[in-house]
Amino acid sequence: MFEAFRDTFKIPDLKRRIGITILLLTVYRFGCYIPVPGINGKELAKIFEGSANTLFSLADLFSGGALSQATIFALGIMPYISVSIVLELLASIVPYFENMLKRGVEGRKKLTQLTRLGTVALCIFQGMAVSIFLENPEHFGGVVIVANPGWLFRIVSTFTMTAGTIFLMYLGEQITEKGIGNGISLIITVSIISRMPVAFHRMAGLVASGEINLFVVIVLIALIFGVVAAAITVNESERRIPIQYAKRVIGRKVYGGQSTYLPIKLNQGGVLPLIFAIAILTFPATILSFTQNKVLSKIATILSPQEPLGMVLYACFTIFFCYFYAGIIFNPDNIAEDLQKYGGFIQGIRPGKPTALYLERIVNRLTLPGSVMLSAIALFPYILMHIYRKIPYIVASIFGGIGLLIVVSVLIETIRQIEAHLLLRHYQGFIKKSKIR
Hints:
Elements: H1 2-8, H2 12-31, H3 41-50, H4 54-62, H5 78-93, H6 95-102, H7 105-135, H8 151-178, H9 183-194, H10 196-208, H11 214-236, E1 238-245, E2 248-250, E3 253-255, E4 259-265, H12 272-289, H13 294-303, H14 308-329, H15 332-341, E5 344-345, H16 353-387, H17 393-396, H18 401-424
Antiparallel strand pairs: 1-4, 1-5, 2-3
């Protein structure tokens, strides 16, 4: 591993890409400390630190602490992620978007342009909602966050936060094109990692005050390795279906006859089912939490993933979207048709429709344990908060949840891209191959 890390900087192109990635991510982190005009960021950060609202803590986690300090990147990159996911779903359901993708590069460019326009519209809506929310001192126990409320403040803050998200889109695209890894995913990963020192500091404060036993903390830290191992298992596990290709004689040459396998992942959608599930669950709860009505506020509290009903709904949504994404990403009919076209078959299974039914049955059986494991890892922080009421979400998020899953999956994918550059130039990768054959 250390040899691979050293070899990484021997390749000029790879060294340049890594340098550009680090530089652009550093620019992003500096932007997380540039405040929006007219907002008392210090008072807002104090209120967020003592707040028990899981929804706001989750949004602050994805923004890298920019939301709690009301900086120009307060909305983060999540509006872009939300719009892109919705359009990807529409591309698999609505014929108009499906035909757009079939046009190739031009269709993909048009879909990207629609994603950008949708992101701007969503940012304006969210920015205006956040501005109106910050103007009301009743939401913050009478503390004045905005000294001069009014339409001028709302317009300035909305366009400032919208411009911040647009700039993040640009940074993400530049990282993807000129750096290493997926830029948007790396921005989210850096945001989550940046909150970990704060979480450890808060945990140390809880131990020092005697609110949490030191032995419990040691056990929980040991559990981190188990949760990370489970996250890697969910992300990397796959079922390999043996495929046999029949021999074909064309002229004097014999083609085919080799054996290979068809990999089917345990979790087809990665962390996308979790992102979509938490978005659907938290959107109405967030809107309801803005109101002063006690009944609506109570409903918002019940829908929170920290509460029993919210946890059940979160798990159900996650399992549903795991099956939904598996149905979209893995099409048994198309795979069975392609196998039959090129002379491939699964031993003991007839080509055509029986092969499609066989593959569909395997996907359904794999998706169930994969979705249950994904839900368990995602719910672990909320279960921990339910057991230890004094643990805030930022501390509980260290031990699991959607944040940890995103970090694990993105880092694995980035390491794979670096390893591909190393192997292309005949260097040893990060994972040594076994000598046993």
